[in-house]
């Protein structure tokens, strides 16, 4: 009986006796396809011994396979554990960085917001102060005009003209209410020791100076 395997090379071929893949090196097509372990199984009336050897051989192969498989499983498990650890570490680092970035970002924004608000408030305060001074300045001028032109009990303007004929008095008539309010408020400021817009010749200022 011949075989069809290549000659003069190292091969792994299933042994026709034990059916296990075994190393072969054929030199002739008439070489038996029977491994070195099985050479003495052939032709003899030793079926019990043959079967026992085959079972042992397969059991050993199975154990070796199992061991390799177990080692492979253990190695894979170890890799998985290591990868889980790495992932946990990375997640921790990402969370840390995220917190750091968020903290710095919000701190920066808050800082900028604080500066802007301060600046806006300062500018608004300065504008308010400027507007107040301009109103004080205009009101002081108006007050001087009013002291020169107001109706006295004799139905005459204090400038000497007949009531109703003084154009200066008529011009400021609509402002007398606002002027009175401003004067009252500034007298109160003066008496409270605060800054006021009354002109230096205002009676309240003169009275304060005398005291
Ligand atoms: Zn064999
Ligand atoms: Zn055999
Ligand atoms: Zn007048």
Summarize the structure in words:
The chain is mainly alpha-helical and 211 residues long. It has two domains: 1-44, no CATH class; 77-210, no CATH class. Helix content is 63%, strand content 4%. It is built from four helices and two strands. It has a two-stranded antiparallel ribbon with strand order 1-2. One zinc ion is lined by residues 149, 157, 159, 161, 166, 168-169.
Condensed summary:
The protein is mainly α. The chain has helices at residues 47-148, 167-173, 176-191, 203-210; strands spanning 11-14, 21-24. A hairpin with a 6-residue loop joins strand 1 (11-14) and strand 2.
Question: What are the SSEs and their pairings?
Answer:
Blueprint: E1 11-14, E2 21-24, H1 47-148, H2 167-173, H3 176-191, H4 203-210
Antiparallel strand pairs: 1-2
Helix pairs in contact: 1-3
This protein binds zinc ion (ZN) (3 copies).
The site of one zinc ion (ZN) has 8 residues, from loops.
Kindly give the count of domains: 2
Q: How far is the N terminus from the C terminus?
A: 145 Å
Beta-strand fraction estimate = under 5%
Fraction in helix: 55-70%
**Rg computed from alpha carbons, rounded to a whole number of angstroms:** 57 Å
| Overall form | rod-shaped
Secondary structure class reads mainly alpha
Q: What kind of sheet is the major sheet? A: 2 strands, antiparallel
Strand order of the largest sheet: 1-2
Order of helices and strands: EEHHHH
Please give the count of helices: 4
Total strands? 2
Instruction: Give every kind of bound small molecule, once each.
Output: zinc ion
**Could you tell me the mean pLDDT?**
88
Low-confidence stretches: none
- In quaternary terms, these chains amount to single chain
